[in-house]
Design goal:
heterodimer; A: mainly beta; seven-stranded mixed beta sheet; 0% helix; globular; B: mainly beta; six-stranded mixed beta sheet; 58% strand
């Protein structure tokens, strides 16, 4: 099992460019999440998908869109990147069927917007 | 909205010293989870506490959940260099959906050999 995978690992964008961050999990989890992590700010939830076909806004959704393509894949799109979106982005998944319902994180995408 | 506060933000210890990080919520929590993130890595789940007053141990790590289910702590006895990283608490409030896991800002632990 690869767990949660994310692509790309690193990305540099210019202001106004768009891009999609990809996330996939092979654990058959129902729920998937996108977080951003900034120094001193912890992990902030951008969007989540409780199950295939549903998505909901988290704490900081502005400037982002998501697509739950199928049960495995959950993508995050930046339509017009801004320097304030420079961050490390983590995708995570979880399943209420597990004892602890813990979240499994991917390795992250380090994004710089110039 | 709900907030989860974590202190201290940073902690520098000598190897062998103890370490404690504290987590406080503005609302009563259903449960609390703890994660560890190594430098350059991603958060990894450590434990979940559910019951009021619950105490769980993992080798040198002791986790507590307060009686009112609004605070929690992680204590590491005799730190080692392998304990270096950032420790996050994450609370789930009553009635919250999967999306209501609120993370604290973390405590970054450095250990001097």
């Amino acid at each position: 099992n690869a767990g949660v995978t994310q692509t790309p690992k690193f990305q540099v964008l210019k202001t106004g460019q768009s891009m999609t961050l990809q996330c996939a999990q092979d654990m058959n989890h129902n729920s998937m999440y996108w977080y951003r992590q900034d120094p001193g700010m912890g992990l902030r939830l951008i969007y989540y998908s409780a199950s295939e076909g549903t998505t909901d806004k988290g704490e900081v959704p502005n400037g982002y869109n998501v697509s739950r393509l199928n049960k495995r894949e959950f993508s995050l799109r930046l339509e017009s990147a801004a320097p304030s979106q420079t961050s490390v982005y983590f995708c995570a998944s979880s399943d209420r069927g597990r004892i602890y319902n813990e979240q499994f994180f991917g390795p992250g995408t380090r994004l710089t917007v110039l | 909205g709900q907030q989860v506060m974590q202190i201290p933000q940073y902690q520098h210890v000598q190897e062998g010293e103890d370490f404690t990080t504290y987590c406080n919520s503005s609302t009563t929590l259903s449960n609390i989870q703890w994660y560890k993130q190594r430098p350059g890595g991603h958060p990894v789940f450590l434990i979940q506490l559910v019951k009021s007053g619950e105490v769980k141990k993992q080798k040198r790590l002791t986790f507590q959940f307060g009686e009112a289910k609004k605070n929690s702590s992680l204590h590491i006895t005799a730190t080692q260099t392998t304990d270096v990283g950032t420790y996050f608490c994450a609370g789930l409030n009553y009635g919250g959906s999967q999306g209501n896991l609120i993370f604290g800002k973390g405590t970054k632990l450095s250990v001097k050999p």
